Amino acid sequence: MTQSVLVVEDDAQLGGQIVAHLRDAGFATTWLRHGRVLTGDDLAQIDLVVLDLMLPGVSGMDMIARIRELAAVPVLVLSARNETADKVRALQLGADDYMTKPFWPEELVERVRARLRRPTLADGSAIEIGGLRIDRRTREVTLEGRPLELTRVEFEFLLTLAERPGAAITRRVLVERALDPDRDGDARTLDVHASRLRKKLGNDGLIETVWGIGYSPLGEADDVKLRTKLVLLCVIAIAATLGALAIYDAIARHRAASELMIDIVQQHLDGARERCEADPARWGDRLPSSRGPGGPPPGHDAKRPPPPDRGPPPDSNRRRPRPLEMWAYDASFRSASADAPTLPGALTEAIADTDVVASDVAWRGDEVAALVRTPWGAGPCAYVFARGSTGDWGAVLPPGRLWLLPSVIVLGAALLVAGPLVRRIRRLTREVEQSASAGYTLGVDERGADEVGELSRAFATASRRIRAELDDRERRERALREFLANTTHDLMIPLTVLQGHLAALRDCAAGPDAVRSAMNEAHYMASLVHNLGAAAKLDVADAVVHRAPVDLREVVGRVAARHRPIAREAGITLDEAVPDAPVLADADVTLVEQAISNLTYNAVRYNHRGGHVAVIVEVAPPGRFCVRVIDDGPGIAEADLARVLARGGRSDAARSRAPEGLGLGLHIALGVAALHGFTLELGAAEGGGLEACLRGPCRPTA
Model confidence at 381, in pLDDT bands (50, 70, 90)? Predict the structure, then answer.
């Protein structure tokens, strides 16, 4: 879907250019050539407004205020007014972005695209997250009903997070949305604003750092602190462990009681056929026993007597086991006793293939039961069904509730351990925030042999690396600023001179000297531009050299032809001497030609009228070339040779006039040589002057 942009610009030429560039970028545009009071219908189909401030009719500031009354459409101010007060007022009235004139059309298009990529809230809407409320129209923020005083950067930072739930927000997006580079700093200050905003919100859970990316979207505050989490984790772990022990204890009791009951029943059946068949209705019944499901009958010698009674003390609340009960059944599973229970179907089915069947082991309930086939297996006492309850046999947990005491001790120990741990983590958090706010110049406490100590040392190592990178970047930026300042200065001088000559030519008051000087200045500026391009290519960390066979004779011929008019105007003779056979080198022709051109240009520029410059290509066995540039000018003092090879370096004689160069020429020549594996040698020429020699291996000719 094509997005629509309203352009409000009174200058016909500039407005036409803006509209043309936006249309070329795929936007539908509407152009107003004066300021006026807009209506809701004017903005109904508009996705973004590009607005000038100095307009006939209604001013741009008044139009911003009117737009904000009607809609939340983004407003990009495009004005020649670059005072901070104008920017602040426009942003306070509701503008979303501010660009100053002059500008590059590509930047305007990218600013428009970037602004349209950002979500826009409905007019007058507010965002509520937990107790936090953000009103976009009034730019008011409240937390639990309490108003928060936020700066413009903090508000935009908070709003950007609130508008993007479910995704991590990169620093680039936050810088683009929240910071004004003219007064708010750059990406390095973003962490400082985030730290201050966290303190005002009073809850670190609302904004979390995503290392290497930026910040996480705004979410519900996490009120559960680490100490509470550790306590809950301990409680859950202890409860799960005790629950598992209780289940295992119940199963162990059930299994032990079942085995004991079957043993007692089998002992009770020895020699009991006559008694049972004589009175099956009363046989068995309840056996007197104090040990769980039963015990051996009185006076009977047990083959495997039950273990000593480990039952609970008399004052215990543990329920005592029920006495063992037995009933006799015939082959059809019918009992003569009226009190006999109906046999479970699972037991009667399972007894067909075995002599003893016990009830399933269970951890819930305390009843145990078994169906036993009698040795004789016939008559009214063919089967015996026994029923009882579990006791303390096979128990895992001790009687009573004393086993809870270790759990309480473990929980208390966890709390004691958690306290110092939480304090150390909080202290480390504060130190990290302070270090980040101070540009990672402050260290953190690296003591401790545990994981927190390892985390502290890891952060300290990362901080030192970040600090080193920041220092290196700062050095580079400082060098770049100085380099740009020198470049600007040295460009302005020849431009000013050239403008003066052009003015003289316009007024027909110029003579040959003025034309000659203008040619020199134009030649210098062209050389400077070429050098800047070469310097940019050489400064890349992994500079790519496009090697190909290069005939150095042709390169020297082009260089001599280019500089001969300048030498002629300066009264200097420029000669070249090359062998008849091709002299090939594997090199980037652009860079090598620029290096030789710089050496030749310096020889011409620093020579005197009537001087001589020679550019010579030689083949020095075995298989190496040498491109010599020799002049008979003043030369360079030996003490200055090392200095002039550094970027920006100039000899003392070259400091009085800007066109003598930035000092880039020799530095670039040296860089080109190093990049190709060549060597560059500087020294005094015979009879005075300077001799430069570019040496390297020749490429074999076919």
Answer: very high
Give the span between the Cα atoms of 14 and 23, in whole angstroms. Answer: 14
In whole angstroms, give the CA distance from residue 351 to residue 366: 23
Would you place residue 41 in the very low, low, confident or very high pLDDT band (cuts 50, 70, 90)? confident
The percent of residues above 90 in pLDDT, for the chain, comes to 16
- For 260-270, b where at least 16 C-beta lie within 10 A, e where not — what string? bbbbbbbbbbe
Cis amide bond preceding 147, omega within 30 = no
d(CA 19, CA 502): 35
Amino acid identity, position 233:
L
pLDDT at 224: 45
d(CA 531, CA 538): 10
Query: Which of 641, 642, 621, 643 has its CA nearest to residue 695?
Result: 621
Which residues are bridge partners to 403 per DSSP? none
Maximum CA extent, the chain: 154
Over residues 612-639, the mean pLDDT reads: 88
Return d(Cα 488, Cα 566) in angstroms, integer.
Answer: 24
Measured torsion, CA atoms of residues 526, 681, 561, 612, in degrees rounded to the nearest 10 = 110
- State CA 472 to chain mean position distance: 21
Residue closest to 548 by CA, chosen among 593, 481, 503: 593
Other beta carbons less than 10 A from residue 249's beta carbon: 18
In this structure, how many other beta carbons lie within 10 angstroms of the beta carbon of residue 657? 11
Q: Please give the model's pTM, rounded to 2 decimal places.
A: 0.36
Q: pLDDT per residue over 172-184, tens digit each?
A: 777 777 776 555 5
H or E, element range at 18? helix 12-24
Are 254 and 312 spatial neighbours (Cβ–Cβ below 8 Å)? no
Three-class SS state of 626: strand
For the record, the structure tokens of 657 come out as 């006039």
Contact 75, 94 (CB under 8 A): yes
Locus of tokens 């215990």: 316
Question: What secondary structure does DSSP assign to 382-423, as a single string?
Answer: SEEEEEEE--STT-SSPSTTTTHHHHHHHHHHHHHHHHHHHH
Closest of 75, 112, 80, 81 to residue 94, by C-alpha = 75
Task: Tell me how far apart the alpha carbons of residues 552 and 217 are, in angstroms, rounded to a whole number.
Answer: 61
Q: Are 676 and 606 in contact (CB under 8 A)?
A: no
Helices 589-605, 552-569: axis angle to 10 degrees equals 30
Phi, psi (deg, nearest 5) at residue 446: -100, 10
Cβ pair 598, 662 in contact under 8 A: no
Structure tokens belonging to residue 111: 């600013």
Rounded CA gap, 198 and 178, in Å? 16
Question: Alpha-carbon distance 164 to 143, whole Å?
Answer: 19
Gap between the Cα atoms of 163 and 186, Å rounded: 22
Model confidence pLDDT, tens digit, residues 239-293:
887 788 778 878 888 888 888 888 888 888 888 888 898 888 888 766 654 344 5
Helix, strand or coil, per DSSP, at residue 219: coil
The pair phi, psi for residue 143, each rounded to 5°, is -125, 115
Helix, coil or strand: residue 326: strand
| Whole-number CA gyration radius for the chain | 48
CB-based burial label for 117 (10 Å; 0-12, 13-18, 19+): exposed
**In which residue are the tokens 């985390």 written?**
455
Tokens of residue 301, six digits: 């010698």
pLDDT number for residue 520: 65
Res 297: pLDDT: 40
Looking at residue 29, what is its pLDDT?
A: 94
> What would the two tokens of residue 102 be?
């002059």
Choice between 121 and 163, residue whose per-residue pLDDT is larger: 163
According to the model, what pLDDT value does residue 631 have? 93
* Cα–Cα dist 440/554, whole Å: 55
